[in-house]
Structure formats: C-alpha cells, structure tokens
Design a protein that fits this description.
The complex is a heterotrimer. Chain A is flat and about 55 Å long. Chain A has a domain of about 40 residues. In chain A, about 35% of the residues lie in helices and about 5% in strands. Chain A is mostly helical. The model of chain A has no long low-confidence stretch (mean pLDDT about 95). Chain B is of the alpha+beta class. Chain B folds into three domains: about 300 residues, no CATH class; about 110 residues, no CATH class; about 60 residues, Arc Repressor Mutant, subunit A, CATH 1.10.10.410. In chain B, helix 7 crosses helix 8 and helix 9 packs antiparallel against helix 10. Chain B starts with 8 loop residues before the first strand and ends with a helix. Chain C is an alpha/beta fold. In chain C, helix 7 runs antiparallel to helix 15. The mean pLDDT of chain C is about 95. Classes of the chains: A mainly alpha, B alpha+beta, C alpha/beta. Chains in contact: A-B, A-C, B-C. At the A-C interface, helix 1, helix 2, helix 3 and strand 2 of A face helix 9, helix 10, helix 11, helix 12 and helix 13 of C.
C-alpha cells in the first residue's frame, strides 16, 4: 500500500505534530520506502500464530494498597513551562 | 396487585419511537492509593497535592498495579453475577488532552477483567434484567478547570491515575426511569460490596450515556450518540429525554443522525457536539508494554467469592421470608446496606412489622427533613427498637410515641427514660380508668342522659374528656371498652 | 600514573584500592581529557564540580568494599539524574531537570561510583549514527569523519577516547552493541528485565534495556553486576537473586556448544565481515568449543518487525511530551491543540517525528491488524526460532554489524539503509535475550569490527565467560591516535 499526503497529514493530526508543507513531499517519499521495507512481512503466513503480548513469561506483579507517594507539588510543577502556585496552566481548551 | 404497563415512547408524526439506552458507568474504586501509583485517592485535597511523578507522567516513570484495585474489580464482577476472566490485559488508549499526562489512558480493551453479567431491576411493571457486557479497570484523568482564568485552562492532576471500573451495560434500558433504577441498583450493589462509595457529588460515579431511537417493532438499532460524563441521575434523565427527542425530530425530518460524542449542557438543558472529541474514534489501543498480562489464580477468585457479603437481592428475599415484610418494604429496607443493618438490629429487639412501618414512616421522614442518613441518625437502633416495643406492648399510644420520638431526636435519650421522666406512660389499669370515667360521667349527668336517649355522637365527647383528664395517656382501646360498658349500665 | 585513563576499569579500581591514585586525581585526569576532547561532542552536560566533590568525599573516607569504589562515570543522557539536566538528545527536553535518579544509575552510585557527565545520544535513542541528536553529531575517535554508531554514540566515543573509565547505554535494537562494534569496545545488552527501566527515558518499552559499555569483558561483568537487579518499581523487572558476574568470570569454555546461524550471512555482506566471523569461530573451536550449524529462519523479518513494534510503542511513549508539565513549549498557537502541534513539531527532530508517524499509522484504525498485530505474530516466530535453537546450543555467534563505522552524513538521506545497520542486533531485542558485542578485528581501512555472542535468557554469565576467553585469545588491541588533542 502507498501512503499519500492526505493520509500522512491525517496521521500527523492524530499524533499532534504539525507538518511543514515544504517537507511533506520528502516525508512521503521516506515513509513510503520504509513501508515498502516493512511490508516484506506480508510474505509470511501467520494465520495460526498467537501474537506475542509480553516477552516475559510471568504474571503481573502487584503492590500493596498503601499511600506512599504524592505531596510533592513543588517538584511536580517545577519543570512546567507555565504554571502558578497550584496548577499547570495551558491555553484555553474549547470543549 | 395490578401492575402498571411500561409506557415510555416518543410519538412522532410518522410513528411511535422507542428509546434504546446503554450506559458506561465509571465507578471510582474504593482504595487508599491509585491504580498504578502510591498517591492518595482522598477527595478534596488541594490542587496537585496528590500527584506522584507517575501520575504526572514524568520521563521514565512506570506503572505498578495496586492489588486491592484488582480485588475490588473482581468483587464487583462477582456482585454483578459476572464471569471473572483469569487472563486480562491492560491496553493503552491513546489521545491527547491537557488532563491526560501520559497522552494515553491505561485501560482494558480486548481482554477485560470481568465479562458478561446481569443486574435485576424492580420496576412498577415487574422485574427486568439488564445485561452487563463487561467491566474493566482503567485510570481516571485529571481535571481541567476552564473558569478560573479567561484565557487559560488550569490543570489539576489529583484525580489522574485513580482506579475506575467501567461497567458497560448492554443496550437493554428503555426509559429514564429504568436508567434511574439501574444506576441506583448498581450503586447499592457496590456499596454493599464496599467497592465504590457511589458518591455522585464527588464524582465517584459518572456515566457516559448511549442513546438511540427506533420505531417500535424495528429489529435494528438506530445510530447512537454518546453523551459524555454525566454526573447525576437527574442530568442523565434530562439528557436522555432531550437527546431522544432531538433524534426523533431529525428522523421525522428525514435527516440522518451522526454517530458522535455529545456533551450535556446543564445550564441550557441540551446536548451538543463535542469539538474536542473529533478524532475520538481512533484511540490506537495496544497492549501496554510497561505491564504484563494479569493472570488470576482461581483460588483468589474463589476466596473473594466466599468472603462476599450478602447482596441486596438475597437480602430482600430473606427479609420477606424471615421478617414477613412485603416486597415493597423489603426493597426499601435493603436499598442501602446501612439501612438494612439498622433494620435488622431493630427487628431483633422488637416487632418486625411495626419496626418496618415506623422506620419507613417517621424515621425516614425525620432523616430526610434533617438531611441526615441512617449512619448518623440521632436515634440509635437500640433506642428505636425500645420505642417500637413500647408501642407494641401498649405502654404508650401511637400518638404519645410521636411525642417521645420527637424528644428522642432532640435529646438522643432512651425512650424508657423519656416516658418515665415525663410521665408519659399510657394509663392501662382498668380500675384506675374506671374510677376516672365514673368521675367524668357523674360530672356530666345531662350528657349521659342525652347519650342514652340516642345521641350517640356524644361518645366522642366522653373520650375527649378522658384524654383531657389523663393528659392524653389513657389507653384508647381500654377507654373505649370501659366507656361503653359504663354508659350501658 | 600519567596513563591511568587509558587503562581498563578493573585496573583503575586496583589502583584506587591500593591507593596508587586517589579518586580526586583520577577524576581530575578525566576532566582534563574531557576538556581537551570537545571536538568529539560526546558530552551534553558535564558535572565536574559535583564529581570533584564526590571524589574528595571518597578520598576522605574511602570504602574499598564496593564494586566501583571512587570511580567517576559518564552515562548516556537517557538516564534521569537527580538535579542534573536530562535531555535524551532532544530539544523537547532541553531544559528538563529531573527530581529523581534512575534505578540503574542509583545502583552505580550505591556501588561507589559518581557522575562525571551526561553523554550525547541519538534523539530519544532513535538512530544508528548519533546524527539525530539535537546537540549535534558525535565523532568517532577512530576517525574524524566517522560516526561512532548509535544511539549510544556519545558513550562509545567517550569510552574509547578515555573520557570515562566505563559507561552505560541503552539498547532497543542495537544501540549498545553497534556503537561498541564501531569503536572496538565491549557492549552488552542484558536479558530484558535484568536491569530496571525505571527512570530511563523510554523509547520502546518492550525492547529497551540498559547495559554496560566497557573496554574489557571483565569490566563489563563488573558494571553489569553493579547496575542490574530486581526493582519493584518496574513491573517488567525480573525478580531473581543477584549474580556476582565478575567473581564468577571463567575462561574455560571447553565443551560449550556454539550455534552458527546460516541466516546471518546476508547478501552484499563485505567479505571481511565473513572473514571476521570465520576467525571468531576458529578461536572458539581452538578453545574447545563445539561449533554447530543452526537455523534462525525468520531472521530476515526481524528488522521489518522491529520497525513496526518500536515506532508503535514510541508513538505512545512520546505522547507525554506535550509542553504541559516539563520541557519545551512552543509560544505559537491559539489554543491547546495548536500548542501541542507546534510544541511537538518544533521540539522533536525529523527522525523522531518520522517514527512517531510510522507508529501512529500502524496502530491506527483499520491498519492495526495488518501491521501491529502481524508484527507481534512474527515476533512470536522470531522468539520461537531462538527457543528452538537454544535447546541445542549454549550460545550463538554472529557478526555484530554488517559493516564497520560509516562516514558522517553517508546514510542520513536514506532511512532504510540506516536501519539496515541494525540487521544483526535487532532480533535479540525482539526475543528479549542477552547479547555481547566483542571487538574482534579491523577491516582493511583499519576500522574496528565486532562479533556478537547471543545467550539464553538470563545466561549473561555464560556469554561473558565465552567473551572473556575469546578476548584473551583474539589479540585485538585498540590503538587510537588522539587526533583531537
């Protein structure tokens, strides 16, 4: 299958990356060559193969239900590009 | 008892429509800490005070699951008579939002922890079974606050990462009333189990409502709209009402319904399309590689099953059998675990039937008036039982009992003490009563003569006099008997 | 004394323990080397003051019972370090200062080492040449026109230029082994789950694994012992008893069965790679190992599989870089969505964006089954190939890379040819196995070439032992002209 510019723009929208119009052509070319390479997998019949969900053959380990974290607001907010004393601040969201 | 008929349809020009509703209920799991981090889940903390590096998705942070949340989901599944899956997988649901720090929500998609189950509703037109499609565990998002600043949105991540159970019903609901009954039943079951506090004001129970309409008799479902995050039963009912009518209008006008996510505007009382969910159909789910599949030992499930408390449906049956209550009474008394506990304590010490009547009457009315619930009732179950017993034994009359009840509410005192100290005990000694009545009769010879001459209305006058003289304490039944006897003689 | 920095970690440790050199002198020597090697661009951040402080502290109260007593170490800038800027080679984390320390680096510090600086790497570890870093490409000390490999290219460059006595990298598809091979050093990718991933900037969670990069196999065993271990903060960490790799290091490999997979002889492979492989086989055979021909039939599908799985996971792992809580935020854009799009577009470099798009696409509605699910099935087959082979052999010997270090800029315009560089390293990540890259010889230009030993899951000791024996008998010596001085 081949990826056209529209598809790439749609995927970029999903990934929240704005694509520079000037770069769309070279991006399209690169992605198509990568997908051509990836699609070698179609040679293989995998109908009867179980997909691998985890490389580790063990069950999920759990922790006790204890409060052991939090109360570090300063640390949490410290690196934020925009914040006030209590909150992260982002441009207005329209629902 | 004649049953009412189901009657919730929308009549259009071109036909009669039925409303099809499915709910995705998000119930906050009762746990001390979050699903994948050790931050507290307590409601009402200062902004961003219950946030760990994991909840705020710092680079390199990894989730570790809280065992209690898993158990709570299993308990809830068992309470919904559902199949518990020994193998389940956590997936990432990818989307961008300011209050979703990871850029994905850890949820369960193809392999949820709980499979199909059912919930039984008591409707005026009979009982109705609502199918449960699945229950899965997932993380809650944080909170975006839009009204603190005109140009910015503020983000509070205290809720980010708290465990939710998403309980998905089959599209079996057909009216706002059924939705009401369903939510209340779910809440009751989870409160019995102690898996969710069901507090809608605090957001512990919210729902996405899927609504579609179709002409009565149609086999296929109509196109549905999902109304997001409605947080009270009243709003759910209003949203369904509005949305169903909107859809019928569109159909009547020959227009199509877009499958979309809508928001219920509580100020305008209407639903509208949500711009922020434009690409909501492409969540790019895939198994979370930071977590492994959750494999449950059958023994864990069996042990949890054994330790499950008695659930409302079973308790109701038992109340009918054991306490001789009717179905309505039993329903009311099992509606909350605390109420049923209170009732059982009272019923053990007093007359079962009279206890039910007084609880559902005066006690509930008082709690309602005062905005209290049974757990903080000013009257203890033991005192309430004593009051019921005093009525039953004839020690006080129903009228006096109401007075005693009032004093109990104010003082919290034991009814025996109140009756004693205020001398409210019913006069039930026949000799004393006879003496009192003779006194009244001799004082009112003219009225006695009139009575005997046929003016039987005067009987009430004599009763009144007895009550007046006794300060209301004369046993009414006995008074009647003695009066009749003496007036004859 | 003057040449302390070109010695191996184990020799340096001996000198520290015997007080032939103080930790402070050692640290000062490395600082001097680093300051004279700015041309290599191996460092993103240096922490000299802090290192000197720690060295003095050690000298005042030396504790020689530790594995890494008094040794300064530079680490890949993918490990979060408390109060020290951590960039992952990206503009989007250009100003990020973690308040926490990754488990692996904490383990190193708990064993007596301390931080010397943070090493350049491909942006978010996505690259095979260290040319995708926001902080510029790194130069291979082997030659001023050569790439040092990637993504742990700052690490390989710094190590071979004597800017750190040993280092650690991360390996998602070869990011430790390929740069080790390009610089003539030793690099180990441990079994998935042996080293905690907590506090390491994630690229592809099911493949990422931290590991040591060292001058010798013995050094490698010391570093692995120090950095590995169970971590209850990582759900994919393996809970097992800690091993003492360095103490148990043996050079007797008599009777061990070494598998030689025929599928690793690929089309257009330079003759000298083939010759190197033959040389490796002969060394092991002469040491008493038994060579067994094996087949790993799905080898050629490993790279396509990897380029679905890794970008898919990355597209999700990198969604958190949105300019809200940390890192770069674009000032452009009128609402939240535009802020996201501009932040991510300006914050990420081209290769990272390319992989996010690939990953987003393969997971998107309508394509999941054809790509992601298919890849997870092929991954199962690749794992099974190894499982089957390891019923017959103790370890597998292959070349580490299909070529020696290439020229800067040579492959930047052709992503697929860049990706093909990882053809021998990627299968191991997909199967979660340990693999060791060993310097084994030089090509005709005099550039280093490496061989790879692949082990069973958690069989690090065995491949270290084989590597140890190989190293003693290979006669490889890294002789580098310090042209940058």
């Amino acid at each position: 299958m081949s990826l056209d510019k529209e598809k790439i723009k749609h995927v970029a929208k999903l990934a929240r990356i704005s694509v520079d119009e000037a770069k769309v052509d070279s991006l399209t070319k690169d992605l198509n060559s990568i997908f051509k390479f990836i699609e070698q997998l179609n040679e293989l019949n995998t109908d009867k193969v179980e997909p691998l969900t985890s490389i580790l053959n063990q069950s999920l380990r759990s922790r006790k239900d204890e409060i052991s974290d939090g109360k570090i607001r300063e640390k949490i907010l410290k690196n934020s590009p925009k914040k006030n004393e209590e909150f992260f601040v982002v441009p207005k969201v329209v629902e | 008892m004649s049953k009412e008929k189901f009657d919730y349809f929308i009549n259009g020009e071109k036909g009669k429509y039925e409303v099809v509703i499915g709910l995705e209920v998000h119930a906050q799991v009762l746990s001390n800490s979050k699903l994948f981090s050790g931050s507290s889940t307590k409601f009402g903390a200062d902004p961003n005070k219950q946030v760990s590096l994991i909840d705020s998705a710092f680079p390199g942070m990894l989730p570790v699951i809280n065992e209690e949340c898993v158990k709570q989901a299993i308990r809830t599944g068992l309470g919904l008579n559902a199949k518990i899956n020994n193998y389940s997988v956590f997936d990432r649901k990818n989307y961008f939002y300011a209050d979703l720090p990871q850029g994905y929500q850890i949820s369960q998609y193809k392999n949820p922890i709980v499979g199909e189950g059912k919930v039984l509703l008591d409707m005026p037109y009979g009982s109705k079974e609502i199918g449960i499609e699945r229950l899965h565990l997932e993380q809650d998002a944080g909170k975006s606050i839009h009204d603190m600043d005109p140009s910015s949105t503020y983000v509070d991540l205290n809720r980010s990462g708290i465990a939710l159970m998403e309980i998905v019903s089959k599209p079996h609901l057909r009216s706002p009333d059924e939705v009401n009954a369903y939510i209340k039943k779910l809440r009751t079951i989870m409160r019995y189990l102690g898996t969710c506090d069901g507090n809608m004001q605090e957001g512990s129970l919210r729902a996405d409502v899927n609504v579609s309409v179709r002409k009565v008799g149609d086999k296929n479902f109509g196109t549905r709209c999902e109304i997001k995050n409605v947080n009270s039963i009243k709003f759910m009912q209003m949203a369904i009402e509005y949305e169903a009518n909107r859809q019928v209008e569109l159909l009547e006008d020959g227009k199509e319904i877009d499958q979309e996510t809508r928001l219920f505007d509580t100020k305008k009382n209407e639903t509208r399309s949500m711009r922020s969910k434009e690409d909501a159909h492409d969540y790019r789910y895939f198994p979370d590689p930071d977590l492994l599949p959750l494999k449950l030992e059958q023994k864990l499930i069996d042990d949890l099953k054994k330790s499950l408390p008695e659930l409302p449906d079973n308790k109701k049956e038992r109340f009918i059998q054991e306490y001789g209550l009717n179905s309505y009474e039993a329903n009311v008394l099992v509606s909350e675990k605390e109420i049923s506990n209170y009732y059982e304590e009272v019923a053990k010490l007093s007359d079962k039937k009279l206890a039910a009547t007084w609880m559902m009457g005066d006690l509930f009315a008082m709690l309602n008036d005062k905005g209290l619930n049974i757990s903080n009732s000013p009257i203890s179950a033991k005192n309430f039982a004593e009051l019921v017993q005093s009525i039953k034994s004839g020690e006080i009359s129903g009228r006096i009992a109401k007075e005693v009840f009032e004093i109990m509410v104010e003082s919290g005192d034991n009814p025996k003490k109140i009756i004693e100290s205020k001398g409210m005990k019913q006069q039930s000694d026949p000799k004393e009563l006879e003496k009192m009545i003779n006194e009244i009769l001799s004082k009112n010879k003219d009225k006695v003569d009139q009575y005997k001459a046929g003016k039987e209305k005067l009987f009430g006058f004599f009763v009144g006099q007895v009550m007046k003289l006794s300060g209301g304490k004369a046993n009414p039944q006995l008074t009647n008997e003695i009066l009749k006897k003496l007036l004859k003689g | 004394m003057s040449n302390i920095t070109n010695q191996s970690l184990s020799e340096i440790l001996k000198s520290i323990k015997s007080k032939k050199i103080s930790s402070l002198e050692l640290t000062q020597a490395y600082i001097k080397n680093i300051e004279n090697a700015k041309k290599l661009n191996a460092f993103v951040t240096t922490t000299f003051d802090q290192a000197l402080e720690n060295a003095k502290k050690f000298d005042n109260k030396p504790n020689n019972e530790q594995l890494l007593s008094g040794v300064p170490l530079a680490v890949k800038d993918l490990f979060c370090t408390e109060n020290v800027k951590t960039t992952a080679g990206s503009n989007i984390l250009n100003n990020f200062i973690p308040s926490y320390e990754s488990t692996v680096t904490k383990n190193l510090w708990n064993n007596g080492a301390f931080l010397l600086g943070k090493l350049n790497c491909d942006e978010f570890a996505m690259g095979s040449s260290n040319e995708t870093s926001f902080f510029g490409n790194v130069i291979n000390p082997i030659g001023d026109h050569l790439v040092p490999g990637g993504s742990s290219g700052g690490s390989s460059s710094a190590l071979v230029a004597d800017l750190t006595p040993a280092t650690i990298g991360t390996d998602t598809g070869g990011s430790i082994r390929q740069p080790a091979s390009f610089t003539g050093t030793v690099g180990l990718k441990p079994t998935y789950g042996l080293c905690s991933r907590w506090g390491i900037v994630a690229f592809a969670s099911s493949l990422d694994q931290a590991g040591p990069m060292t001058k010798t196999v013995n050094d490698c065993s010391i570093m692995l012992e120090a950095m590995s271990g169970f971590d209850d903060k990582d759900s994919t960490s393996i809970n097992k008893k800690k091993e003492t790799y360095s103490k148990n290091l043996k050079d007797n490999i008599k009777g061990l069965k070494i598998g030689i997979p025929k599928e690793y002889r690929v089309d257009n492979m330079p003759k000298e790679i083939d010759e190197l492989w033959e040389k490796g086989k002969k060394i092991l055979k002469d040491l008493g190992a038994q060579l067994i021909d094996i087949s790993l039939p799905h080898t050629k599908y490993a790279l396509p599989t990897y380029y679905i799985v890794a970008p898919a996971e990355a597209s999700s792992n990198l969604a958190r870089y949105d300019g809200v809580r940390y890192g770069y935020r674009s000032q452009k854009g009128k609402d939240l969505i535009e802020m996201y799009e501009n932040t991510r577009s300006e914050g990420f470099g081209d290769e990272v964006k390319r992989r996010i798009l690939i990953g987003t696409y393969v997971l998107s509605s309508g394509y999941y089954d054809a790509y992601y699910l298919k890849a997870q099935k092929v991954r199962q087959l690749i794992k099974k190939d190894f499982d089957d082979s390891f019923t017959k052999v103790d370890a597998i010997l292959t070349p580490s890379t299909p070529s020696s270090a290439f020229k800067i800029g040579e492959k930047t315009n052709d992503p697929v040819s860049m990706y093909l560089n990882d053809i021998f390293t990627v299968p191991v990540n997909l199967a979660g196995l340990p693999a060791l890259s060993l310097p084994a010889g030089l090509d005709k230009q005099g550039y280093p070439l490496g061989l790879q030993l692949i082990g069973k899951a958690l069989d690090e000791q065995k491949i270290l032992n084989i590597g140890y024996a190989f190293e003693k008998n290979c006669g490889y010596k890294n002789e580098i002209k310090k042209w940058w001085l």
